[in-house]
């Protein structure tokens, strides 16, 4: 996974001029996804811009970012393009921009196979991220691929283990082991509207920008049931979503990154799964960049549609070993937790704010977040902050409890304040226990508030105690 950089506003004019000269513009349409309540969102709508992304941390300059809008899959050492069943075969590759195995438009069953990509460089990182160039196994053009009891190992940049690309392509993989060791090498990767079904996989990645469960431009559908998913590189969450991803009955561990990142109009749904994140540092030491466990954002790179990000978890556990539990910036989002065990690394449960980091998402001062956060039979602890260009609707439902504070804070860039920054609803049978003084826009209380000597100040200056 690479956290993508938005396009600085002061560069837009120059980029538009260059694009007119080269005739290679890409349309980024934001206008159909912003509601009136989101007027604080980034203002680069309706510009024709080439996608711009930041290389992962530690990448050298000129490493091939800026992929073509033309689908570029590279070559393949081995190709299956007719319906067949294969058992016990080994497929290898050492070539540049080359898949060890490609399944092209066929219905294929692969049992107990071995895929080894031991070498070969990638000439263009984003063509590898978007289209499967240099992956171990690439399925495309509507292929229907079933993989069981197999092993996939890659040691090349963009060596994604198993890649599902394009509308109509379906990869079903179970009881298999995937190991990747280089950068931009996810375990299972889904893009361009592809579909991946995964069951009881053992995945571990070592490189930067190498999510275990990964998606990129064009998204798709991913359903995972059972297994272990581990990452070790920076910028390598267990799940990076530009797709609709559901994970059940699994364990997920990011040893040097956020646990989950969701970009744009996409979703992650967890069911009875245990996930751990450990984001250990910021990009190039930028102190303005947040450290978090679960991040929902919009990069403006064009790789994910602008719209509402969605995260939900039922049962299981979420553990943060570093940073804030949830961080939302430059997007609208819906978060719902039901009976999840939360373990925080610091006092912050949720931070909703604009950002001004060096990678910058949206326009500083106009790039707040808009969140609807619902606790359903859920116990919450920690502090929540919402800056003045962002909004939060916090709903405690079905016997939920919240022990902590909620406060509206100034936007760091001095952006224009929006209405309804923090709206709280406490349903019957629910409890909010204050651990400090709070500021909210409005409060609907049908449950219980334990003030503990603290106050809640409303937008109309009413003080509750």
Characterize this entry briefly.
The protein is built from 2 helices and 43 strands. By secondary structure, the protein is mainly beta.
Architecture overview:
The chain has a 21-stranded parallel beta sheet that branches. It is built from 2 helices and 43 strands. 4% of the residues lie in helices and 43% in strands. It is mainly beta. It is elongated and about 70 Å long. The relative contact order is 0.09. It folds into 2 domains: 1-58 and 237-465, no CATH class; 74-233.
Topology record:
Elements: H1 12-22, E1 75-76, E2 79-80, E3 84-87, E4 90-93, E5 98-99, E6 101-104, E7 107-111, E8 114-117, H2 125-131, E9 137-140, E10 144-148, E11 151-154, E12 162-165, E13 170-174, E14 177-180, E15 188-191, E16 194-205, E17 213-215, E18 220-231, E19 239-241, E20 244-254, E21 260-263, E22 267-271, E23 274-277, E24 292-297, E25 308-314, E26 317-320, E27 324-329, E28 332-338, E29 341-343, E30 348-352, E31 370-376, E32 379-381, E33 383-387, E34 391-397, E35 401-403, E36 406-409, E37 422-426, E38 431-433, E39 438-439, E40 442-445, E41 448-450, E42 456-457, E43 463-464
Parallel strand pairs: 1-5, 2-6, 3-7, 4-8, 6-9, 7-10, 8-11, 9-12, 10-13, 11-14, 12-15, 13-16, 14-16, 15-17, 16-18, 17-19, 18-20, 19-21, 20-22, 20-23, 21-24, 22-25, 23-26, 24-27, 25-28, 26-29, 27-30, 28-31, 30-33, 31-34, 32-35, 33-36, 34-37, 35-38, 37-40, 38-41, 39-42
Antiparallel strand pairs: 42-43
């Amino acid at each position: 996974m690479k956290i993508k950089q938005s396009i600085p506003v002061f560069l837009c004019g120059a980029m538009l001029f260059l694009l007119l000269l080269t005739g290679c513009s890409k349309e980024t349409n934001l206008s159909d996804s912003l509601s009136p309540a989101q007027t604080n969102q980034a203002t680069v709508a309706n510009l024709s811009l080439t996608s711009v992304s930041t290389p992962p941390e530690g990448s050298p300059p000129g490493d091939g970012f800026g992929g073509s809008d033309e689908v570029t899959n590279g070559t393949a050492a081995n190709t299956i393009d007719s319906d067949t069943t294969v058992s016990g075969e080994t497929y290898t590759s050492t070539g540049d921009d080359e898949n060890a195995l490609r399944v092209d438009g066929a219905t294929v069953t692969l049992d107990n196979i071995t895929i080894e990509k031991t070498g070969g460089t990638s000439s263009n990182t984003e063509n590898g991220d978007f289209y499967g160039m240099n992956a171990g196994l690439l399925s495309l053009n509507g292929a229907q691929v079933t993989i069981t009891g197999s092993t996939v190992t890659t040691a090349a940049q963009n060596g994604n283990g198993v890649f599902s690309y394009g509308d109509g392509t379906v990869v079903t993989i179970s009881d298999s082991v995937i190991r990747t060791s280089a950068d931009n090498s996810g375990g299972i990767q889904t893009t361009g509207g592809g579909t991946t079904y995964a069951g009881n996989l053992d995945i571990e990645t070592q490189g930067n920008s190498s999510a275990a469960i990964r998606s990129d431009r064009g998204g798709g559908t991913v359903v995972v049931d059972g297994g272990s998913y581990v990452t070790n590189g920076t910028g390598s969450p267990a799940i990076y979503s530009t797709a609709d991803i559901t994970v059940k009955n699994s364990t997920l561990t990011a040893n040097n990154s956020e646990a989950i990142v969701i970009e744009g109009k996409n979703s992650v749904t967890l069911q009875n799964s245990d996930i751990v994140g450990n984001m250990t540092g910021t990009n190039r030491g930028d102190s303005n960049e947040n450290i978090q466990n679960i991040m929902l954002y919009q990069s403006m790179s064009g790789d994910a549609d602008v719209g509402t990000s969605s995260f939900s978890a039922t049962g299981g556990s979420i553990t943060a070993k570093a940073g804030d539990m949830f961080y939302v910036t430059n997007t609208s989002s819906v978060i719902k937790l039901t009976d999840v065990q939360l373990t925080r690394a610091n006092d912050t449960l949720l931070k909703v704010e604009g950002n001004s980091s060096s990678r910058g998402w949206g326009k500083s001062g106009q790039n707040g977040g808009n969140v609807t956060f619902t606790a359903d039979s859920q116990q919450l602890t920690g502090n929540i902050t919402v800056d003045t260009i962002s909004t939060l609707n916090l709903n405690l439902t079905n016997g939920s409890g919240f022990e902590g504070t909620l406060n509206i804070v100034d936007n760091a860039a001095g952006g224009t304040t929006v209405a309804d920054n923090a709206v709280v609803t406490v349903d019957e049978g629910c409890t909010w226990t204050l651990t400090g003084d709070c500021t909210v826009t409005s409060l609907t209380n049908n449950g219980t508030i334990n003030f503990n000597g603290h106050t809640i100040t409303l937008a109309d200056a009413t003080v509750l105690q």
